[in-house]
Structures are given as C-alpha cells and as structure tokens.
Automatic annotation (TrEMBL):
Single GO term (MF): corrinoid adenosyltransferase activity
Origin organism lineage: Bacteria, Bacillati, Bacillota, Bacilli, Bacillales
Naturally occurring in which organism (per UniProt): Metabacillus malikii
Classification via Pfam families: Cob_adeno_trans
The protein, known as: Corrinoid adenosyltransferase
Keywords of the record: ATP-binding, Cobalamin biosynthesis, Nucleotide-binding, Transferase
Record EC number: 2.5.1.17
Database matches in Gene3D superfamilies: Cobalamin adenosyltransferase-like (1.20.1200.10)
NCBIfam families (UniProt xref): PduO_Nterm
Keyword Nucleotide-binding on entry: yes
Length: 188
C-alpha cells in the first residue's frame, strides 16, 4: 500500500460522500480534532506509571472516540450513520465528577503546566476548545453535522482540565494560581 495517493495535489480531499477543498470548514474542524488527539498521544508517553492507569486507559478510549468524532464531521451526506453518541458524553461527565473530587478544591484560574504530562494535557485541552469553535462555525454554515460532536468536545475540554489537575496532584505538584484572578469557581 502506498501512503500517497496524489489525489489531493490540487487542494482537495475526500470526505464521506464527496470531495471538498482542503481549507473547507469541515476539514479544519476534523483536522483540529486530529491535532488534539495527537497531543493526547504525546501525553500518554508520560503516563506509563501504574498510578495513572485509570487516566491512561481512559485517554486511549478517548482517542478512539475522537476518531469517531472526526469521522462524523467528514460526513457530507445525511445517509451515513454517526458514531458519536450521547453515552460518550455521559462517561466524560462521570469521570469529570470523579476527578474533581480527587483534586484539591479550586477557587481561581490556574496557569497551565506542572508536570510534562499535565502541560501536554493542557495543550490538548486548548486545541480541543479550538476544535469546538471550529465545529460551531461549521454548524452555522452546514446543517449536515452530528450535534453530539459539539457537546462531546465541550465536555472533553473539561475532562482534560480535570485530569491535568489530578496528574499534578498525584505527583505532589500544586497548581499555580493566576495571581490576579478573582474567585471564579464556586466552592462546595
């Protein structure tokens, strides 16, 4: 099998149900999801310690789900079944609640960083937010979109924030609060 097809040499790419320009909103959206997925893959290289086995396994699951989301965004005709489903969001919400209870209470904004794994997770989080914005723009311009993808990306960025904090906490690293932050998070 050859990796190159030469079919994109004139600035177009194949999607499910046709071809579009490579700068199409749809391609930008699923390409940004792929970028977030790659940063998650990089973070996994730092999470082989057994203390992170729960997070490690969840991130592998999420990488598959991100492929599902990207695939759903590549659909340009409604006759194809979508893969992203609401149970994916339910799982993220359950895990967010779990991790929020593990990490110390949060009152102010924090600076992204800490351990190498947490820092890369924060990058994946911000790229996920960009993917979310791209999907919003796509949905305004093209009705053929799985709305679950937008909800999933919104929840995923919250999940990534939660696990970045937990990774640092498990390593004994404190979050660094943004020093000019007001109290922005409600305490229990």
């Amino acid at each position: 099998m050859k990796l190159y097809t030469k079919t994109g040499d004139k600035g177009q790419t194949s999607v499910i149900g046709g071809r579009v320009d490579k700068d199409n909103l749809r391609v930008e959206a699923y390409g940004t999801i792929d970028e977030a997925n790659s940063f998650i893959g990089q973070a996994l290289t730092y999470l082989s310690d057994p203390m992170f086995s729960d997070i490690y396994n969840e991130l592998i699951k999420i990488q598959h789900e991100l492929f599902d989301c990207g695939g759903d965004l590549a659909v340009v005709k409604e006759k194809y079944p979508y893969k992203a489903k609401m149970d994916m969001i339910d799982f993220l919400e359950e895990r967010i609640d779990y991790y929020v209870s593990e990490a110390p209470e949060l009152e102010r904004f924090i600076l992204p960083g800490g351990s190498p794994a947490a820092a890369v997770i924060h990058i994946a989080r911000t790229v996920t937010r960009r993917a979310e914005r791209n999907v919003v723009t796509l949905m305004k311009n093209d009705p053929c979109c799985n709305e679950v993808v937008l909800k999933y990306l919104n929840r995923l960025s919250d999940y990534l924030f939660a696990i970045a904090r937990v990774i640092n906490f498990r390593l004994g690293l404190n979050d660094i609060e943004y020093e000019r932050s007001a109290l922005v998070f409600k305490t229990k």
